[in-house]
Amino acid sequence: MVKNVRLIDREGQTQDQAVNILIKAERLEIVTQDVIPAQEGMLVLDASSGVLLGDLDIGQPSNFLILNQDPREDITILLDTKQHVVSAVHQGKILTNNLAVVSPSETPSRRKPRWFAYTPPPRSLPFSYRDSRKWNQWNTKHIFGTFYAALVLDRQYWLSQDEVSEQQVGDLKAYEGGEIRGMRFGAVGALKFERPWIYTIFAATTAFDRGFDTRDDNSLVFYDWRLDIPLASKMSLAVGKQKEPISMERLMNIAQIPQQERSTEGDAMLRARNVGAVLSGTGLNWRMTWAGGLFNDWFDGGKSFSESSSQLVGRTTWLPFLSDDESNLVHRGLGVRYTNARGALRYGTTPEFNQSPIFVDTDPLPANYAVAYNPEVSWRFGPLWLLSEAVINKVSAPELGNPLFHGYYVSGTWSLSGEVRPYNRRSGVFDQLPVARPVTQGGWGSWEASVRWSNLDLTEGRVEGGEVDILSLGLNWWPVRVASLSANYRNISLNRFGTRGKSNGLALRLILILD
Fold first, then answer.
1. Rounded to 5, what percent of the chain is helix, strand, coil?
2. Three-class SS of residue 439?
3. Domains with residue ranges and CATH for the chain
4. Is the pTM of this model over 0.85?
5. In this structure, which of 60, 167, 270, 284 has its CB flanked by the most CB atoms within 10 Å?
6. For residues 280 and 243, what is the distance between their CA atoms, to the nearest angstrom?
């Protein structure tokens, strides 16, 4: 075991991480920010915040060096290995070691180990980030990149629907069946300037989104195409089509959110992606993030810039509480979105099932502008994660009584297998649940149970968009890091035009990721 070793990020995209490393039978067993209980017969080495360079592939023979100084501060450290390399491991065997040996009985514990939280190394860990052995990577003198792809398969079951609900939205049985929910592919990489520029480009086909039996093969959509340009040590400018910087749930990708679909209030009133520029950065020793962007969808919308709506969007997050071992933290955030509403505004969404008719819908609203506020709060205590967001959307439409639309969700998740969701202090969001013991290494994978209550009210003044309440239960299983199975049950109550209808359904999902 190697205690207190530091994983660095050369590119400045994430914060350095102090972790503990366990090697068994010459293979890397675990990388964790939790304390690893020491046992008799175990060789325990204290790296004392030494810097690690090398490969950290779980289940593979370990290959890394530990330096006594940070090579980012002085590159000549890498030229004098005799003086600065304090430990070297090759194929799981120790070649040289000058680290202090700590007996198991002397190993301090910052807290009683109640969970074993695997935290994967940062993507930009030197060497492994530019691992040319992977077939889906390329590396030239001027550019580096990695190809990614994901396939999402869904199967929808509508379990029951009362007569009122059928009168409101039609027969839901017509929407049962399987579909390819998403098929996305693209690349992330760097242009090798002195301070690398990061590029992202992702596309998806929507040819299959009406079911497995469709034969339509045209619709190719570019979801993301952007360039991230570093401006200062903790500030960057992103230009292109990208996610608007608002709402943690909307900033997380489909593999990161605990439920299969995002909650109704965000889907109805916050846009996912837009064309524009975002300036972002961190502060308060990585305990605060901020981002602000200006958007206009003229490029994708087919209209001129002046004819298209413009949006000003901003978000800030901070950590008012963070324990010494970072297992316990409180996250707060606030987002604001303004649109000048060129043309009509319209808000509506499905009841958190993709294979469903629209349940709430305002129809087009003639408006002068709209301002949405998005407060968010999260508490993570080890494998427990509680989170909530709200959207309050004020629409300036005097003819309709200036309606105020609003919604919220309250959610809780529990990692049944003990993993802890990492928190990205660069972007102020939680990452995908890691897999401490994949089935390929004799484990059970990672299991996560979740519950969510959401509400969306689009009825105000002379607008009868409807109000929907949804109780959701979910179970996610990641047998390995690149595949998951999940089940979501939802109980839905729709109040519209003076009637209340009830329905419920079950959705199964398979996610396969090429990484």
1. 10, 55, 35
2. helix
3. 2-128 (2.30.40.10), 132-193+200-226+320-392+406-514 (2.40.160.10)
4. no
5. 270
6. 13
